[in-house]
């Protein structure tokens, strides 16, 4: 029997728990969570990562190679063959009576994940091991399911999935907070003396890691209709907060023949769809967060999915914030973006529901947003939800060539670098809109986890690129 055939015989613990059939021989492979010994038996709790539940293994000390039991430690990897039976204990429905135990790898006694609650801060220092804990195993199974739900949503609605570039010569946000990518040797002094600048670089011009796939997605929307991109984006913003990382994932749909209000409709439906999908498909993992992380989680999720989002213009939201007696750390100012505390006040205290703010001052928004009548605001929208604040940012894009070129001039942006983007408005330009949903923030919302570093496998933050 070859290795592939052996792997095919292994049964996941999740499948065993969901299968009503017992009294059959099974093979599982996983990691030991705990071990308890008595005079005649040993009890192993084994988890294979397929679900939050462990499988209890009962080992009779008379079985062949029983001496191997004494060497087993927490964290060790084992292969166990035995009979799946109804459990006589009250903590689990099924258990396995071991017939054969094979040690795949022994963990040392210094294995850092012992049977106790570890702090999130400590677990970030061992991010290569934290998926073995209940909390983080659940986080990343939900992350996987949430990713699937993203693709399922757009597939059901006829969107085309587009892979947009990670390396780019454009700055979508216009903020300049980008990571430069180069092959130039800036450490070598002799090289620097003879260097002709970007002419000597790999692409012959400045290249960066993308902050958004939007501009590229727009080009495909103007050919294929409705498209979306879903991938990593990067921002060189020196922010050490619970909501920011340098590498994160964005879901960015772009729709042709779509105005701002239709854009809001789709974004609202999308958020509700994702939440409902996780509630229906991740019950066991979600229960962990509702019980131990945020006791108001299910109530919050229900409040989002069960009612329409409130929609108000920026100026109305500004008036509410200026008139409130609530004390903020950061001052509310007209013509400025709202801070997280302002956004959460609107959703959690004032309206007590999700809010969509639209028609922002044009001075605080990027070049590609459509100028409204009156030339003071743009057709932009942000969706704010309780517990998070902004989770979606979007806009109707400026499809008018003359207005777009004037906007570039006003903002002092070099039009030569965006010639292809401007060119798209010359040939069959149409009304189109799109938005970006922060995938990690969505994951924070559905789990109640309060720090973005704890919903991404290997967080990249200022001064931290471990693992």
Description:
- This protein has 467 residues and is an alpha+beta fold.
- Helices cover 31% and strands 24% of the residues.
- The chain folds into 2 domains: 3-105, OB fold (Dihydrolipoamide Acetyltransferase, E2P); 130-175 and 211-454, Bira Bifunctional Protein, Domain 2 (BirA Bifunctional Protein, domain 2, 2-Layer Sandwich).
- It has an 8-stranded mixed beta sheet. It has a 5-stranded mixed barrel with strand order 1-2-3-5-4. Strands 7-9-8 form a 3-stranded antiparallel beta sheet, with no helix packed on it.
Total of domains? 2
Q: Give me the Rg, rounded.
A: 27 Å
CATH level 1 name of the largest domain: Alpha Beta
What string gives the helices and strands in order? HHEEEEEHHEEEHEHEEHHHEHHEEEHHEH
Residue-averaged pLDDT: 92
Beta-strand content bin: 15-25%
Outline the biggest β-sheet: 8 strands, mixed
The largest sheet has its strands arranged as: 6-10-11-16-15-14-13-12
How is the secondary structure organized here?
Blueprint: H1 3-9, H2 13-18, E1 24-37, E2 41-47, E3 55-60, E4 77-86, E5 94-105, H3 120-124, H4 134-156, E6 160-161, E7 167-168, E8 180-181, H5 189-194, E9 207-209, H6 214-224, E10 226-234, E11 247-256, H7 260-281, H8 283-292, H9 297-305, E12 310-313, H10 314-323, H11 340-350, E13 355-361, E14 377-385, E15 389-396, H12 401-411, H13 419-423, E16 432-438, H14 439-447
Parallel strand pairs: 3-5, 6-10, 12-13
Antiparallel strand pairs: 1-2, 1-4, 2-3, 4-5, 7-9, 8-9, 10-11, 11-16, 13-14, 14-15, 15-16
Provide tags for this entry.
single chain; 467 residues; alpha+beta; OB fold (Dihydrolipoamide Acetyltransferase, E2P); BirA Bifunctional Protein, domain 2; eight-stranded mixed sheet; five-stranded mixed β-barrel; 14 helices; 31% helix; globular; disordered N terminus
């Amino acid at each position: 029997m070859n290795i592939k055939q052996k792997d095919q015989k292994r049964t996941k613990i999740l499948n065993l728990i969901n299968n009503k059939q017992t009294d059959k021989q099974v093979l599982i492979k996983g990691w030991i969570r705990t071990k308890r010994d008595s005079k005649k038996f040993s009890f192993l709790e084994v988890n294979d990562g397929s679900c939050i539940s462990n499988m209890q293994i009962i080992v009779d000390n008379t079985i062949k190679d029983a001496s191997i039991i004494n060497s087993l430690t927490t964290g060790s990897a084992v292969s166990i063959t035995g009979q799946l039976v109804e459990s006589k204990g009250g903590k689990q429905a099924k258990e396995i009576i071991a017939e054969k135990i094979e040690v795949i790898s022994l963990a040392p006694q210094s294995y850092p994940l012992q049977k106790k609650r570890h702090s999130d801060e400590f677990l970030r220092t061992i991010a290569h091991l934290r998926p073995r804990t209940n909390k983080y195993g659940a986080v990343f199974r939900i992350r996987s399911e949430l990713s699937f739900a993203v693709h399922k949503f757009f597939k059901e609605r006829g969107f085309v999935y587009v892979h947009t570039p990670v390396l780019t010569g454009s700055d979508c946000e216009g903020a300049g907070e980008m990571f430069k990518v180069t092959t130039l040797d800036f450490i070598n002094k002799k090289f620097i003396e003879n260097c002709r600048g970007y002419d000597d670089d790999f692409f012959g011009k400045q290249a960066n890691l993308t902050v958004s796939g939007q501009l590229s997605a727009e080009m495909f929307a103007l050919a294929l209709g409705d498209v979306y991109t879903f991938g990593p984006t990067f921002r060189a913003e020196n922010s050490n907060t619970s909501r920011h990382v340098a590498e994160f994932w964005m879901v960015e749909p772009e729709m042709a023949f779509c105005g701002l209000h239709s854009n809001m409709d789709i974004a609202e439906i999308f958020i509700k769809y994702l939440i409902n999908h996780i509630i229906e498909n991740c019950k066991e993992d979600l229960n962990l967060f509702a019980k131990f992380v945020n006791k108001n989680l299910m109530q919050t999720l229900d409040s989002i999915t069960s009612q329409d989002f409130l929609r108000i213009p920026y100026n109305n939201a500004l008036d509410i914030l200026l008139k409130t007696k609530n004390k903020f750390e950061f001052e509310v100012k007209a013509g400025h973006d709202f801070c997280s505390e302002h956004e959460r006040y609107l959703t959690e205290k004032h309206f007590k529901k999700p809010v969509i703010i639209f028609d922002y001052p044009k001075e605080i928004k990027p070049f590609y947003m459509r100028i409204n009548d009156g030339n003071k605001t743009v057709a932009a929208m942000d969706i704010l939800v309780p517990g998070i604040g902004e989770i979606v940012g979007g806009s109707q894009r400026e499809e008018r060539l003359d207005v777009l070129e004037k906007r570039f001039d006003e903002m002092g942006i070099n039009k030569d670098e965006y010639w292809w983007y401007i060119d798209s408005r010359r040939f069959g330009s149409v009304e189109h809109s799109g938005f970006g949903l922060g995938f990690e923030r969505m994951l924070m919302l559905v789990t109640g986890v309060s720090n973005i570093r704890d919903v991404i496998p290997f967080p990249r933050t200022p001064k931290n690129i471990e693992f």
